[in-house]
Design brief:
The chain is an alpha+beta fold and 326 residues long. The chain is built from seven helices and 19 strands.
């Protein structure tokens, strides 16, 4: 199959309050999956400009600088290829599919992940997938969940079905319930977190709650069970922002257990640190990702005009974590 060479362009507007640091360090912390050696090679190849001028790796970034970065990417297939990858299908008819996605599986091909994705598996499973998305790498994908989050994902087989389901997501009429193990015991058994979610000015690869920037985000939570230093929590999304649950739970000082990005892999609660340290390390060996699972999914079937409500089983690592906590 013929290959095409692509490049990724990134523009970064350095905020006014940014402290001064070398550009290779700044870009390593700002660009997803970047390493310092890779960034230095790009700078030396004149793929990085600041205020439209080529710079050296030791250039000191100043507030209000405009940085443009061109990243040549590896060749990618012109079309996504079908792959014989097992799928846990919870529901399927001639119009749509609901899959219980495994943790570690990327939803669709993207930079660095052109194989082994859910879409590769779906193309092997069925010849019918919606082409409503703008690019050919996301056929049928109506919504997404993070790579290391497990749970229910909705797939459309045709464009009309896709559009009708997308409207339900847009109007927040989809019922979605997530289960998570969060650090600590909550002061209130029920509550909500409201706060805009924006990219962090310190690290562009992650998100944070902001009073002035970003998009409105709203999460409801309910504690289902408490343990010594953690809680099993049910979460319902009023909005659907990137990393929303993970960011909101970290913001209220109850990060999701095992989350490597938002503080879930360090001991956050526990009066006797040394006493629980060995236990926590053992639990983190079991849960090597964020303990977050998209448990239920409810929607109106576009063709049948009836409510479809589905529930998925917790994955083995989640079950084992709960058993150990109990």
């Amino acid at each position: 199959m013929a290959k095409i060479i692509t490049e990724k362009k990134i523009r970064i507007d350095v905020p006014e309050g940014k402290k001064k640091e070398r550009i290779d360090v700044f870009l390593t912390n700002s660009v997803e999956n970047a390493t310092r050696s890779r960034i230095q090679k790009l700078i030396k190849a004149e793929c990085v400009t600041v205020n439209s001028k080529v710079v050296k790796p030791n250039y000191i970034v100043n507030p209000c600088d405009v940085i443009d970065l061109t990243i040549p990417t590896n060749p990618r297939p012109e079309e996504t290829e079908a792959e014989d990858i097992p799928l846990d299908i919870v529901y399927e008819d001639e119009f749509l599919i609901v899959v219980n996605k495994a943790a570690g599986m990327v939803a669709h091909p993207s930079l660095g992940n052109y194989t082994g994705t859910l879409v590769n598996a779906l193309l092997h499973h069925t010849k019918k997938l919606s082409d409503l998305n703008e690019d050919s790498f996301r056929p049928g994908i109506v919504h997404r969940i993070d790579k290391e989050t497990s749970g229910l994902l909705l797939i459309a087989k045709d464009e009309w079905t896709h559009a009708q389901l997308a409207k339900q997501f847009y109007h927040h009429t989809i019922d979605r319930e997530y289960w998570a193990v969060c650090w600590g015991k909550f002061k209130q058994s029920k509550g909500e977190v409201v706060g805009n979610i924006a990219r962090s000015t310190k690290d562009r690869k992650i998100f944070t709650v902001s009073e002035t920037e970003g998009k409105h985000a709203h999460t409801f939570y309910e504690v289902m069970e408490e343990f010594e230093f953690a809680s099993l929590v049910k979460l319902i999304l009023k909005t659907g922002r990137t990393h929303q649950i993970r960011v909101h739970m970290s913001h209220v000082h109850h990060p999701i257990f095992g989350d490597p990005v938002y503080g879930g892999r360090k001991i956050v609660y526990g009066l006797e640190l040394q006493k629980i340290k060995a236990r926590v390390e053992n639990l983190l060996e079991i849960m090597q990702r964020q303990a977050l699972h998209a448990k239920t999914l409810g929607f109106i079937h576009p063709h049948k005009k009836e409510k479809i409500f589905l529930e998925s089983n917790l994955p083995s690592d989640f079950i084992q974590l709960l058993e150990k906590l109990k």
